[in-house]
Structures are given as structure tokens and as C-alpha cells.
Amino acid sequence: MKIYKELEAIKEEEYAAFQARLIPSIDPSTIMGIRVPKLRALAKSYIKDQECQDFLVSLPHAYYDENMLHGILISEIKDFDTCIEKIEAFLPYVDNWAVCDIMSPRVFKKHKEELLDRIKLWISSDQTYTCRFGLEMLMTHFLDDDFKPDYLELVAGLRSQEYYVNMMIAWFFATALAKQWEASLPYIEARSLDDWTHNKAIQKARESLRISKERKDYLKGLK
Question: What secondary structure does DSSP assign to 58-84, as a single string?
Fold first, then answer.
């Protein structure tokens, strides 16, 4: 496949070693070492090509970098139903946080109601990165104008033994504290999350530039 040859041409061994340290959950031999800007540029050159369509159905991929490219290509799909179809086909093969988090479909902004129904299904999944992806989409699209307090309850009720799920729950609540302080603070005060996630949410909130010093000091006292 032509795409694989182009990936081979832009890989960097030193960068692969660096990435392997950031993503310890996957086999280092599957990392080619391709920087995200180069993957995005490659995706733009292929998005309207038949080769792209062939690539998106050639699952599973052998390399981490192919999965990253796959996630970027999905994010460029402009039809909502097609995008959902491709995501559903891909999620079972997502095995690390980086590939999960690279997916951010632009079309989601125009289909909030249908997206929310799908998010609830993803969050309820027992698959680590399907759940994490659902949490990230809820955080990305439903903590601003479309926010409802029920979303906090939905996330606070989750319990997982998976580090990468709990980290996303913490990230969600840290972002909620920055954007919806009055609604989200009671969940922290009541220690509605498990201890590790509670403390991590406070840590990430205190690192945020969007939260005032006074609020950060108050949060420190809740650890």
C-alpha cells in the first residue's frame, strides 16, 4: 500500500524511542517514529483518495503510527454517520491513550444530540479506550454552552480499575472546575470520585491557567 511506503519514508528512529517511553503499554517495535504534524500532512494529501478508503478498512494495522494516521483521517470525515461508522469499526483496535486522544472529529460540533446518545454508550463500555474516548468527547463538547449538570453525575458514577479511564475522569472534572465551577465543585467537596481520581482531578485543576489562585488554594484543602 502506498501509504505505508510514505510512512516508511518519514519515520525517525530516535523519535520512535522517545515515543516508546511515553506509551509503555504497546510493543516498542510497532512504533515507527513519525511526528504528528507529518501524519496530519499525509492525512490531508490522502483524505479524498481511494487509497484512504482502502486504508480505513484494512484493520488491524501493524504499526502504532498507522493507527495514529487512522485516527487523524477519521477526524477529517465530514459526514456524521460515516464518521460514527468508522469510529465504531476502529475503537476495538485502539490500544493506547495517544491513538485514542488523536481522534477529534470536527463534524461532531454540528450533531450534538446524536453525539450525546453515542457518548453514553461509549462511556458505559468495559473497553478501556472506548470508555476513555466517550469521556473525552463529553469533555470536549458538553462543558460549555451545551452543559447540563447531569453530565457530571454521569461521570462521577463511573468506577474503573483502568489507569487511563481514571486519568480521563480526573481530566474531565478538572476541566469542569475551570468551566462550570459552581456545578462541579460539590462533587469534589463530597469526594464523589475514588480517592486517586479525586486527588488527580484537584492536581490537574490546580495546574490550570483558567482557575484563579483563590480557587486553587481552596481545592488544595480538599485533597
Answer: SPSPSSHHHHHHHHHHHHT---HHHHH
Residues 179/182/188/193 CA torsion (nearest 10 deg) = -70
The CATH topology of domain 112-222 is Leucine-rich Repeat Variant (1.25.10)
Q: Specify the pLDDT at position 137.
A: 98
Whole-number pLDDT of residue 52: 87
CA distances from 183 to 26, 67, 79, 194, 197 (A): 38, 37, 34, 19, 18
Handedness of CA 160, 136, 95, 25 (dihedral sign): negative
Task: Give CA–CA dist 74/8, Å, rounded.
Answer: 21
**Residue found by looking up cell 462511556 in the block:** 123
Does 60 sit behind a cis peptide bond, omega within 30 degrees of 0 on the bond before it? yes
Q: Which long-range contacts (CB under 8 A, 24 or more apart) does 184-187 make?
A: 184/152, 187/152, 187/156
In the chain, domain spans:
1-110, 112-222
C-alpha to C-alpha distance for 147 and 134, rounded to whole angstroms: 15
Summarised one tens digit per residue, pLDDT across range 95-125 is: 999 999 999 999 999 999 999 999 999 999 9
How far apart (Å, rounded) are the C-alpha atoms in residues 95 and 102? 13
